[in-house]
User: Which sequence fits this backbone?
């Protein structure tokens, strides 16, 4: 290698590292931090009948005199009006229960795929991912057709003689859970599968050899070692479900009070952008808490795949 | 079960397999394991006595590991019966067998500390906490890993992991300890030291050890008896000495150590000596009691260290061969010489380097005559 080329490479190596790191930072700054600052700014403004429908945070009153008006009433209102708090609590409850249901349904499926013969695994994984090829919205709409009173589900149950009169499922909380479970199950299965497929099965043999029955070995070896997958899958389900808007809007009923739906109403029906922005900021803050907690937990579990 | 390390009260006889009245501790009766069309273990019967250090050796795929897994209960035999200490365990699941295994990969639980790993089996037995603690301490002290008790397996070196695996498998005081390539993952020096330690440990605890290895040197140094396996079958079961000096067939002779093989036919008998005409024309005279008919094809097996140099004119010496030195491998303590006797015959000879290397007696291309006594070799018919 010539001396010049070597020098050029060293120079590239010198600049290459910060340049590579700069790209994701730039991305995050442009598409996360900047929108966040804009939303934060809106949340501190007052609603107005202008375009855009909120007041500016600052304006020049005189030469050299800058007036800044920060309105904290939006946050105050969210705090005072129990509607928002109950919507938030309800969202958290729905998200927690959905995550649990996804885990209970997804874990055996991920386990079955991970232990299936090699040639079956690809097919099974394909079946999990296949629904993504259709638009999310269309799939949720399809559930309206399935769940309605004269829909195939009721027809089937009537034909089997399990029920006498059609069940009202659509526009209830049950329909919301069905929709969420259906839509988010792959997000639980995939990280769990990735984790379980790396499990060293000789550990289960060792557990059996040391006197542990199969179920005990599952509890003491498989489950703790798949904690990383359980956490990752739960996060991937829990966080988007808290803010979920489409599923409760299309499948839910009037009693389905969720923060995502409320946000939509504030933005588009009430045209109260500052209040909606304040809600969004609070939601973001609230979702950071479990995220940080889980990261702590993962660090403590440390040293595991 | 006592927790102390007192030697077992009934000291087993030195060579219980020689005693027809002795009861075997582990009895493997006609065990077969078939995977589809392949016989991994083919009609194997073995009797192992209490306190033995027994080794199964053979090349990869000979079925030794499968047999070990069958004994652990991790595989189920297609046919046959297994008895441990008088109890039929053929259909007893792995978790209920009085047997523990040290896995080749160690299979330590990565989410548990060293002491939790060792304690795992004791917890399954629902031993009281104090007793569990005592047993864990005892094991950690025994294997000199007490200082590592809080560490996780990924914070240990290979040698330390091996000790933890051993401590974990010994903690339950099993009736039989199975070891799958126990020293396989260690480097050479550590392996040699650990061999002696393993033997001392086994003698101290009085637990019957059954190890699987592909390393014949390892098996020779540690075992009371060795079974040589090939293609799912047992070729020969014997003490290391008997296996080395009196192999029953060519396969065993070639698997254990180096050997010179001379093919020929029986030409006659003189007392307890057989006269053999080799296929190169020259005769050999070997001790052999087998009633062999003249003309039976046989193979004479002679170990390289049994050969010695002699004068070409030495009149008394039988089994005399002459040839040229073709290769010399100097190993420090000994040198291995390969002598070209015939165009299609190389003979290996080992000589101890009594003299310093500079005064080497043989050089390349030198014409030499070697000889061995009729007692130092065997006549094989298989």
Assistant:
């Amino acid at each position: 290698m010539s001396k010049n080329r070597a020098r050029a490479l060293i120079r590239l190596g010198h600049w290459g590292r910060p340049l590579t790191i700069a790209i994701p930072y730039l991305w995050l700054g442009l598409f996360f931090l900047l929108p966040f600052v804009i939303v934060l700014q809106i949340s501190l403004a007052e609603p107005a009948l202008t375009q855009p429908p909120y007041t500016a945070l600052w304006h020049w009153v005189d030469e050299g005199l800058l007036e800044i008006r920060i309105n904290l009433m939006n946050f105050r209102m969210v705090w005072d009006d129990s509607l928002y708090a109950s919507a938030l609590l309800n969202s958290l409850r729905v998200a927690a229960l959905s995550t649990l249901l996804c885990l209970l349904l997804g874990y055996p499926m991920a386990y079955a795929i991970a232990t299936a013969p090699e040639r079956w695994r690809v097919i099974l994984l394909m079946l999990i991912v296949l629904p993504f090829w259709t638009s999310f919205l269309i799939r949720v709409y399809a559930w309206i057709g399935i769940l309605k009173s004269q829909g195939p589900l009721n027809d089937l149950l009537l034909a089997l003689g399990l029920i006498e009169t059609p069940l009202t499922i659509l526009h209830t909380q049950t329909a919301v859970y069905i929709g969420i479970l259906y839509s988010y199950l792959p997000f639980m299965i995939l990280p769990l599968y990735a984790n379980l497929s790396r499990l060293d099965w000789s550990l289960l043999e060792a557990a059996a050899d040391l006197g542990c029955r199969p179920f005990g070995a599952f509890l003491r070896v498989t489950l703790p070692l798949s904690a990383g997958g359980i956490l990752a899958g739960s996060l991937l389900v829990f966080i988007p479900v808290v803010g979920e808007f489409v599923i409760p809007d299309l499948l839910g009923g009037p009693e389905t009070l969720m923060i995502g739906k409320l946000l939509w109403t504030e933005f588009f029906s009430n045209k109260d952008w500052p209040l909606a922005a304040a809600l969004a900021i609070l939601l973001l803050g609230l979702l950071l808490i479990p995220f940080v907690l889980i990261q702590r937990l993962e660090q403590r579990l440390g040293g595991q795949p | 079960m006592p927790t102390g390390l007192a030697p077992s009260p009934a000291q087993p006889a030195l060579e219980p397999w020689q005693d027809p009245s002795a009861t075997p501790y582990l009895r493997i009766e006609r065990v077969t394991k078939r995977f589809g069309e392949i016989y991994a273990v083919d009609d194997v019967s073995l009797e192992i006595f209490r306190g033995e250090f027994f080794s199964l050796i053979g090349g990869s795929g000979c079925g030794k590991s499968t047999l070990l897994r069958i004994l652990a209960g991790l595989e189920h035999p297609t046919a046959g019966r297994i008895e441990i200490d008088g109890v039929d365990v053929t259909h007893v699941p792995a978790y209920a067998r009085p047997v523990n295994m040290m896995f080749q990969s160690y299979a330590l639980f990565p989410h548990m500390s060293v002491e939790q790993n060792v304690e795992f089996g004791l917890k399954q037995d629902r031993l009281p906490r104090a007793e569990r603690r005592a047993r864990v301490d005892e094991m950690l002290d025994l294997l000199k890993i007490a200082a590592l008790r809080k560490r996780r397996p990924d914070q240990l070196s290979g040698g330390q992991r091996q000790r933890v695996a051993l401590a974990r498998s010994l903690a339950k005081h099993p009736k039989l300890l199975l070891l799958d390539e126990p020293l396989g993952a260690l480097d050479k020096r550590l392996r040699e030291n650990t061999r002696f330690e393993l033997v001392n440990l086994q003698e101290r605890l009085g637990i019957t050890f059954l190890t699987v290895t592909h390393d014949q040197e390892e098996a020779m140094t540690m075992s009371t008896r060795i079974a040589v396996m090939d293609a799912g079958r047992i070729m020969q079961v014997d003490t290391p000495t008997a296996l080395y000096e009196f192999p029953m067939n060519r396969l065993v002779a070639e698997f254990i150590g180096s050997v010179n093989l001379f093919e020929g036919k029986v030409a006659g008998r003189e007392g307890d000596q057989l006269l053999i005409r080799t296929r190169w024309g020259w005769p050999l005279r070997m001790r052999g009691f087998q009633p062999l008919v003249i003309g039976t094809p046989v193979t004479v097996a002679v170990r390289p260290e049994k050969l010695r140099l002699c004068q070409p004119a030495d009149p008394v010496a039988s089994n005399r061969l002459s040839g040229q030195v073709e290769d010399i491998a100097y190993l420090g303590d000994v040198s291995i010489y390969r002598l070209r006797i015939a165009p299609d015959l190389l003979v290996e000879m080992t000589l101890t380097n009594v003299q310093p290397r500079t005064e080497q007696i043989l050089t390349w291309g030198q014409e030499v005559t070697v000889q061995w006594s009729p007692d130092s070799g065997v006549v094989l018919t298989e």
About this structure: The radius of gyration of chain B is 25 Å. The interface with chain A takes residues 72-74, 93-96, 99-101, 103, 105, 107-111, 120-121, 124-125, 152, 154, 168-169, 172 of chain B (CB under 8 Å). Residues 183 and 191 of chain B are 6 Å apart (CA to CA).
